[in-house]
């Protein structure tokens, strides 16, 4: 598999860290031998065993927080994406207990973390060659009744929420959807 994955004209849907919940029709990559992965691989080992521009969509749900070098991972994601490919990332928010409880998590993320890779990034001190366009980003809270007011506040005032209230009313995850910008 890997380098030899046939992408067809439209490209593949690739799920990094698919575990045992791989979407039908997707190509799954995971470190776990007992997962539904089509390709068992170590994602900390760069470059990944995929050809350039193979993905029309890439899903990275609860994986990126486990990987050592976020800049290298985002460069690899960009490399294997086709122009305008969708990249969907879900990871624990830094205020979530599980972000810190799990000893395999090496990074903790805020809502604006992935802004460093945006085509119109305000973070000019960290120039990166790989750029994306933001489709959407949002907090994901649990269903608890107490999280409802926090959700509403965070939707309207995300920076104030993270700065002043995130550890009082923790968010569970952040979800970011990007589009690969390629020339």
Description:
This protein is α/β, with parallel strands linked by helices and 183 residues long. It has one domain: Rossmann fold. It contains 4 helices and 7 strands, in the order ββββαβαβααβ. It has a 7-stranded mixed β-sheet. Strand 4, helix 1 and strand 5 form a beta-alpha-beta unit. Helix 3 packs across helix 4. The longest helix is centred in the middle third of the chain and has 11 residues. The chain starts with 11 loop residues before the first strand and ends with a strand. The model has no long low-confidence stretch (mean pLDDT 91).
Write the layout of secondary structure elements.
Layout: E1 12-16, E2 27-30, E3 39-40, E4 55-61, H1 70-80, E5 81-92, H2 97-101, E6 131-140, H3 147-156, H4 158-165, E7 173-181
Parallel strand pairs: 1-2, 1-4, 2-3, 4-5
Antiparallel strand pairs: 5-7, 6-7
Helix pairs in contact: 3-4
Distance between the termini: 28 Å
Give the SSE order as H and E letters: EEEEHEHEHHE
CATH superfamily: Vaccinia Virus protein VP39
Report the count of strand segments: 7
The percent range for helix content is 10-25%
As for the CATH topology, it is Rossmann fold
Oligomer: single chain
Structural class: alpha/beta
Q: Look at the structure and give the mean pLDDT.
A: 91
How many structural domains can be distinguished in the coordinates?
A: 1
Quick one: overall form? Answer: globular
Low-confidence stretches: none
The number of helices is: 4
In brief, what are we looking at here?
The chain has helices spanning 70-80, 97-101, 147-156, 158-165, and strands spanning 12-16, 27-30, 39-40, 55-61, 81-92, 131-140, 173-181.
């Amino acid at each position: 598999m890997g380098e030899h994955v046939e992408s067809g004209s439209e490209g593949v849907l690739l799920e990094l860290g698919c575990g045992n919940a791989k979407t039908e029709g997707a190509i799954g990559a995971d470190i776990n031998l007992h997962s539904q992965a089509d390709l068992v691989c170590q994602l900390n080992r760069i470059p990944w065993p995929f050809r350039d521009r193979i993905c029309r969509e890439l899903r990275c749900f609860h994986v990126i927080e486990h990987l050592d070098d976020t800049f290298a991972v985002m460069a690899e994601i960009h490399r294997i994406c086709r122009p305008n490919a969708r990249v969907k990332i879900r990871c624990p928010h830094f205020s979530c207990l599980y972000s810190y409880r799990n000893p395999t998590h090496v990074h903790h993320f805020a809502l604006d973390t992935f802004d460093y890779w945006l085509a119109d990034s305000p973070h000019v001190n960290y120039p990166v060659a790989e750029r994306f366009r933001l489709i959407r980003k949002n907090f994901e809270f649990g269903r608890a009744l107490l999280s409802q007011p926090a959700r509403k506040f965070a939707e309207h005032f995300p920076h104030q929420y993270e700065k002043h209230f995130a550890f009082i009313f923790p968010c569970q995850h952040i979800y970011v959807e990007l589009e690969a910008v390629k020339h």
